[in-house]
Amino acid sequence: MAAHRDTPGHPVATEAVLHLHRAANAVRQHVEQVVLRPRQLTWTGFVVLRTVWAARRMETRHVAEHAGISKATLTGVVDTLSGRGLVRRDHHPDDGRLVVLQLTRKGQRLVRELLPESQTAEAFALSYLEPAQLALMTAALRGLIEHLERAR
């Protein structure tokens, strides 16, 4: 895919980023309203639960990175999830300064319940797109992420 150079007076990239942000927020809000809010969960809380569930155990710094949030934000989210009995903090077995997160049985059950519902809500949100458009968008977004990760 050819690189696009945005120039003053031709803000195509700026408009694309605006729409990307608005679309991501619209999908997030849909999933929150339909699936998460009835369970008193936020999108960020669900992303943290899903991330830890997929890994089984994960250091907090890696959870924050995978969830796309700061470590400070993660601390508040984990406090809430821990208070609800969904996640627990453990000391890292090799380095007591590090913290590892793990879901409790209650947290595992909740994620298993929510995943099919969230996937259905996500599919509805993207049902506007034809399968070929969805595949193209997915490939483009994956490429965008890889491009920006290489630029770090």
From TrEMBL:
InterPro entries xref list: HTH_MarR-typ, MarR/SlyA-like, WH-like_DNA-bd_sf, WH_DNA-bd_sf
Gene3D superfamilies: Winged helix-like DNA-binding domain superfamily/Winged helix DNA-binding domain (1.10.10.10)
SMART domains reported in the protein's UniProt record: HTH_MARR
Signal peptide: none
Pfam family, one: MarR
SUPFAM superfamilies (UniProt xref): Winged helix' DNA-binding domain (SSF46785)
HTH marR-type domain location: 13-146
Protein's name in the database: MarR family transcriptional regulator
